[in-house]
Specification:
single chain, 4-stranded mixed beta sheet, 20 strands, globular
C-alpha cells in the first residue's frame, strides 16, 4: 500500500507542477539589470599595464585632426601641442578628467517603467547597428532595408522583454536624402516604442530639428530636456588616433540639448588597431579616453557611455568578423577595463557572421552575449537581431535572441545561497518521508523563481517533437515574429502631435 500511495502522490505532484507551469511566473527568474563582473579576463596587473600604455599613448603620441573648437577647450584644460601639431594629454590631465567624469546616470524611457540606471556593473542588453539589408520573413532572402522595416523592428523591440532600449538596427535605404533619413528614423523610434532609444546624425545641423520632433511628440517645447529618452550614437574618433570633425560637432550639439552621448570606438584588429589583443585594448582605451576628454573639457560630468567596442577582422581575408572567441574576449575585457575605471560602459555582442537563422547563429550569439554579460558591461549593444557580420538584420533572430538573453540574465543572476535554499530540513524530511522532492513546497516555490522555461527551445522527446510537426527553432521564430508584428502595432504619437510633425517634416511612414 505504501508503494501505491507513493506513486499516486508522485503523479498528483507532477500534475500540480504542470498546472503551476501553465501559469505566468509570479517572479521573473531572469530580470534585466543584474550585476555582472564575475568574469574577469584580465588580472589586476594586466589592467594596470593596459591602462598605463593607454595613458602613454595619449601623452606621447596624442590625437590628430582635433577641430579648433575642441583644441581651444582642451588646451585651456591642460592639453599640450605635440609632434606635428597633434593634441597630447598629460597623465595628470587624463586622470583628472576620469575622476570628474559621470559615474552613472538615468537613461530615461518615455514611459518611466523603462528607465535604466546606467553604471555600477548593472547589465542591460539592447540594440545597435546600421544594417543595410533585412532577412525577409517570406522569402528568406536578404533585401535592402526600408523605413517600414525600421518601424517593424521598433515595434518588435517594444514587445520583447529583454530589449532594454532600441537603437535603430537598420538603415532605411529607401530614403535618399540625409536630412529626411535622420528625421524619419527619429519618427519611427517615437512612434514604435516608449522604451529608451538611440539614434545617429549625419551632421550637427540635424540635431535640433530631431529634438523639436521629440518635443512635439512629448507635448511641447522643452519636454525632451526634462526627460532625455534618446541618446546620440557618435563615433568622434577615427582609428587610429585622430578625431573626426563631424562626430565631434554632432556630440557638442547633442550636449546643448542634454542628449546623453554614446561615444563609440569601433577599431578593427590588424587594420585600424594593433593585431595583438593587448595592444588593441591599449590603443582603443586611449581613443575612448580621448572621447571622454572631448566631452568633459566642454562640461565635466556630462552623461557619456564609454563605448570601447574592439572589433575583429579575419586576417586571412580582411573582412569584419562579428563573432568568435577573440571578439567575445576583447569586449569582455573592455567592459572589465571600463568598470575598473568606474565609468558607464558600453560593449557589443551577438553580431553573428551567420547569414541564416541556424546553428552557427546560435553558437556565435550565445558565446559573446554570455561573455560580455558576465563581464558586467552596462549597456550591451547589437545584442538582438544582427546577422551577416552586421550587414543584415532579422526579425526571427530578434525573437530567438530575446529567449537567449533570458538564459544569459539567469546566468548572471547566479545562485542564492542561504539557510533556506541550502534546504537541510527539506532534505531530511524527504529522505525520511516520500523519498522525492516532487510537489514539495520548496520545489514549487523554486520552480517559479529559480528556473526559466523557454517557449521557442524544444524540450520534448523525439516522438513528441515528431508528432508536433518537427518544427525547427527558425520556424517557431518565424511564426512568433509574424504574430507580434500583426498584433503589436503601436503608435505612441498622439494624433495632434502627429499632424504637427507631418506639417513640419517630410514624414514618409504611413
Amino acid at each position: 500500500m505504501a508503494v501505491r500511495h507513493s506513486r499516486r502522490s508522485g503523479q498528483s505532484s507532477r500534475e500540480a507542477m504542470r498546472a503551476l507551469r501553465a501559469k505566468p511566473p509570479a517572479i521573473d527568474p531572469c530580470p534585466p539589470g543584474p550585476t555582472g563582473g564575475r568574469y574577469q579576463p584580465l588580472s589586476n596587473t594586466e589592467l594596470q599595464d593596459i591602462y598605463t600604455a593607454a595613458i602613454r599613448i595619449l601623452a606621447e603620441i596624442g590625437m590628430d585632426q582635433s577641430p579648433p573648437v575642441l583644441t581651444e577647450k582642451a588646451l585651456a584644460a591642460g592639453a599640450q601641442t605635440g609632434k606635428e601639431g597633434r593634441l597630447c594629454f598629460p597623465k595628470s590631465m587624463v586622470e583628472d578628467i576620469i575622476a570628474g567624469a559621470c559615474r552613472s546616470f538615468v537613461f530615461y524611457g518615455r514611459d518611466a517603467k523603462y528607465d535604466i540606471e546606467v553604471g555600477a556593473q548593472r547589465v542591460y542588453f539592447g540594440t545597435g547597428g546600421a544594417a543595410v539589408q533585412t532577412l525577409d520573413l517570406d522569402s528568406g532572402d536578404y533585401r535592402p532595408s526600408t523605413l517600414k522595416d525600421l518601424y517593424d523592428f521598433t515595434c518588435l523591440a517594444d514587445a520583447l522583454k529583454n530589449v532594454a532600449w532600441f537603437t535603430r538596427c537598420c538603415v532605411a535605404t529607401d530614403i535618399p536624402d540625409n536630412f529626411d533619413l535622420d528625421i524619419n528614423t527619429a519618427y519611427a523610434l517615437v512612434k514604435g516604442t516608449t522604451k529608451p532609444v538611440g539614434t545617429s546624425f549625419f551632421v550637427a545641423e540635424h540635431v535640433k530639428p530631431v529634438i523639436e520632433l521629440f518635443d512635439t511628440a512629448m507635448g511641447g517645447a522643452g519636454r525632451f530636456r526634462r526627460r532625455p529618452f534618446c541618446k546620440a550614437h557618435i563615433s568622434p574618433v577615427i582609428s587610429p588616433l585622430r578625431y573626426g570633425e563631424d562626430g565631434v560637432l554632432v556630440a557638442l550639439e547633442a550636449m546643448q540639448h542634454r542628449m546623453p552621448i554614446n561615444c563609440i570606438i569601433a577599431a578593427q584588429s590588424g587594420a585600424t588597431a594593433p593585431a595583438p589583443l593587448a595592444g588593441m585594448l591599449a590603443s582603443t582605451l586611449a581613443e575612448t579616453l580621448a572621447a571622454l576628454i572631448m566631452v568633459n573639457v566642454v562640461e565635466p560630468g556630462y552623461p557619456m557611455i564609454f563605448s570601447n567596442w574592439p572589433f575583429v577582422i579575419d586576417l586571412r581575408t580582411g573582412s569584419f568578423s562579428g563573432s568568435g572567441g577573440e571578439i567575445a574576449l576583447l569586449n569582455a575585457a573592455s567592459a572589465q577595463l571600463t568598470n575598473w575605471l568606474g565609468l558607464p560602459s558600453g560593449v557589443a555582442c551577438s553580431m553573428a557572421d551567420a547569414k541564416s537563422v541556424d546553428a552557427q547563429m546560435g553558437l556565435e550569439k550565445a558565446l559573446t552575449a554570455a561573455a560580455v554579460g558576465l563581464a558586467g558591461g552596462n549597456l550591451i549593444y547589437e545584442s538582438s537581431g544582427m546577422m551577416a557580420s552586421l550587414l543584415g538584420a532579422s526579425f526571427e533572430a530578434f525573437v530567438i535572441d530575446d529567449e537567449m538573453l533570458s538564459h544569459v540574465y539567469r546566468l548572471l543572476r547566479g545562485i542564492e545561497v542561504n539557510e533556506h535554499t541550502l534546504g537541510f530540513e527539506s532534505i531530511k524530511e524527504v529522505v525520511f518521508g516520500e523519498g522525492h522532492f516532487l510537489g514539495g513546497i520548496d520545489t514549487m516555490q523554486s520552480m517559479q523563481k529559480d528556473y526559466f522555461y523557454p517557449s521557442l527551445s524544444d524540450r520534448q522527446d523525439p516522438a513528441g517533437w515528431t508528432d508536433a510537426g518537427k518544427h525547427t527553432m527558425q520556424q517557431q521564430a518565424n511564426v512568433r515574429a509574424r504574430h507580434l508584428l500583426a498584433t503589436h502595432r503601436p503608435s505612441y504619437v498622439g494624433s495632434k502631435a502627429d499632424a504637427e510633425i507631418r506639417r513640419r517634416f517630410n514624414i514618409l511612414l504611413q
